[in-house]
Amino acid sequence: MLVSPALNPALREARFDGDTPLDPSGARAARTAAPHLPAADRYAAGASGRCRATARELGLGAPDDLQVAPAGWQLGRWSGLRLDEVAAAEPEAVAAWASDPGAAPHGGESLGELLDRVGAWLDAGAGDGGSGPPARGVVRLLAVVEPAVVRAAVTHALTLPPAAFWRLDTGPLTLTTLTGRPGRWNLATGRPLAPAGAARGEG
Which helix (H) or strand (E) holds 117? Predict the structure, then answer.
């Protein structure tokens, strides 16, 4: 079960990996969403401040109690910049990045590398550390991860072409559920964790 982080200024401004803290409305929305979380056996969060803060506001425990989930897309020198800024300054680089899964003009991670990294985590049991199958045969993991990680996980799980990544949207504080096993995943995506207004941080 993958939960996208609450809104923060970077997400509001469409900045590449702009890891600013949650703003008050984002923190409030996460607290509102907390009672709507499904039960899980294990909890994890990405390394970014907004994922960790969202996990804290959702009541998932102290950072040391959480497993480590995949980090967001590593975008090199574009990190922290807005998409429109980069597109204006480097239109050819942005076009290559958006059309070629192997392109990494920012000096960071290509789309193909992101898909491979997240896919390996998913197929390894979503970070179960090689502990073997649980006694019940099923384990429920809930992880707070960046939207790009959610999109990469869905692309990998459904064996979609890399270009499908760009056609997937992940809103703040939404739940995407993957059930099954490597090679046979089922998807339930985009269920809000709170009423629409609260999920957007309104009110």
Answer: helix 111-123
